[in-house]
Fold these 2 entries.
Entry 1:
Amino acid sequence: MRVQTHLMFFLVLVLFSVAGIWRLSAMPDFQLFGELKHRAEIHDKWIALTFDDGPTPGKTEQILQILQSEQIPATFFLTGQEVAQHPDLVGKILAAGHQVGNHSYHHQRLIFKTPSYISTELEQTDDLLRQHGVDGVIYFRPPYGKKLLLLPWYLMKHHRVSVTWDVAPENFPKIAKDPQALADHTVKHTKAGSIILLHVMYDSRAATMQAVPEIIRRLKAQGYRFVTVHELLKKEQASKS
Ligand SMILES: [Zn+2]
C-alpha cells in the first residue's frame, strides 16, 4: 500500500513536470539559451506586424494588397517548404519592401528533435531565402513558438536571434474567429515596441485577414508607426547606446 502511494505521488510529480516543461517550451518571452526578442524596449510608438507561415497563393497577394493600400511594411516568417513551392510569392513579398524571416522548413515542433534535424530545418530555409536575394540578418521564429533545449543551444551557437511576440490575439480561442474581437484585443494590448503575431495564409484564418485593415487603421489613429522587426530592433539598439 505504502509503495503504491509513493508510486502514485511520483507519477503525479512526473506528470506535473512534463506539463510544466511543455508550457515552458512555448512561452514567448523565455528561452533557455541565446537571444530572444518578444518585443522592443523603446518609448517611441513603433511596432512590428508579423505574419507566420506561407507563402500561399491567393492569401499572399491579398495581404500584400492590404499592406500596400495602408502603406506599411510587415515581416513574414515563411516556411522553407512553402518558399520552395511558391518562389514567385516570395519575390512579390520582397519586391514590396517587406522583411522575411525563417520559420523552419517543415513547420514541425523543434523539440525532442536531433541536432542535425534542427540544423537542416534552419539552414535549408536560410539557403532558399538567400537564393531570393535576402541578405543581412535572418531572424528565426520557432514553429508553434516551441523551443526547449537543443534548438536554443543551436541558435546560441550560431548567433541567431529568435523573434516571438507580445501580442497574439489568435491564441485566445474565444476571439480567434471574430474579426472585431481580434482587432479589439490587438489594439488594447499593443504598446510601444510591440511585436504582433498574426496568421493570414490559410482559409482557416479568414477572420484574421478581415481584421488586419481595422487593426492597422486603429493603431495608426493612436499614433503608432509600423516598421519591420529589423527596424524595431535597430531602434531598440540605438536607444540603448
Ligand atoms: Zn507557424
Entry 2:
Amino acid sequence: MKHEKAKRIVVISGKGGTGKTFFTSAIASLVSGRSVFADCDVDAANLALALGGAAPAASRRQERFFGGERAVVDAGLCTGCGKCISFCRFDAIHMENSVAQVDPVGCEGCGVCTLVCPSSAFTLEEEMAGQWFVTDTQDGPLIHAELQAGGENSGKLVHKVRSVAEQEAERVGASLILIDGPPGTGCPVLAAASDTDAILLVTEATTTALHDLERAAEVASTFGTPIGVLVNKSDLNPEVVKKARILCDEKGYRWIGDFPYDRMAAEASARLLDPFSLLEDTTADKLRALVANALNMVGLDVVSSAVG
Ligand code: SF4
Ligand code: SF4
C-alpha cells in the first residue's frame, strides 16, 4: 500500500529571536509518528543542535551546494584586447599586465564575456556556495545546510533542503515534514513556506514584533495555506496579545495560543536544549497544549503519553 504523503508544517517569524527554533523543537519532540525535519534557516542553522543531533561532521550525508556560476579567464588565451571590459555591465573585469582578470565578488555569472571574447578565453564555472547535510537526530532525520560567508542564492539552497527532506520523508514513511523557516519575509522565506499544509507564525508580544507578524502573515497568506499564530513571551505586553487575537479573527488565522516568558524556557532556548528539559510541570503542560494545537492544523497529534 502506498504511504500517504507527509504533511508539511513550516514555522516562520517576521524577525529573528522570537523563539521559532524553540517551538520547532518542541513540536519535533512531541509529534506522534515518524517525522523529518528541514532547517531552512540556512544563514544560521541551529536545529541540529536543538534536536540533540550530532554536529555536521557526524552527518550521514554531506554534499556541496553550487549556488551560481562565475567567469574564469584562461590567461594563455587572452590577447588583452579589452573587449570584455566594455561589455561587462557589472564592472567585474579589469586588466593586469594585459590579461583580463575577473573580480569573483562582482561577477554575476551572466556569461556575456563568454560570448564576446574573440579568443574564447572565458568559461563559466560553478561556484560552491555552501553545503547541506542529512543528520539522524533522536527525533528523526534532519536536513540542514550552511551557506558559506558571502555565499549567494539562499533561496535555492532552501529549495534543495526541502527537496532532500521530501526524499527522506518518502524513505522513512514520515507523516510530518517540519520546516524551520528563515526569519524575515524575503525570498528564502517564500521558498520555505511554499507548498506546505500549514504555516505557524511565531512572534513575541512587542509592538514591533506584531508589525513584523502582520507583514509575514501578509506574505504567507499569498499561498492560501492555513496560518496559525503563536505569541511568545505573552506577558511582555498583553495588549499586543489581544491585538494578535483580533488579527487572527479578522484574517481567519488560527489562534494557536500564547506562551508567557519563562526563565527556564529562555535558558533551554539559549542553550539549545530540549525545550521540555528544564520546565516546571505547569509550563510544560502549556507548551504541550500549544504543540497539540499546532499539529492539529494538519490533523496530527502529540504522542499519547505526553498529553495532559
Ligand atoms: S575579450 Fe577575451 S581576449 Fe579580449 S581582453 Fe577580454 S578575455 Fe582577453
Ligand atoms: S560573467 Fe558577466 S558579470 Fe561575470 S565577468 Fe562575465 S560579463 Fe562580467
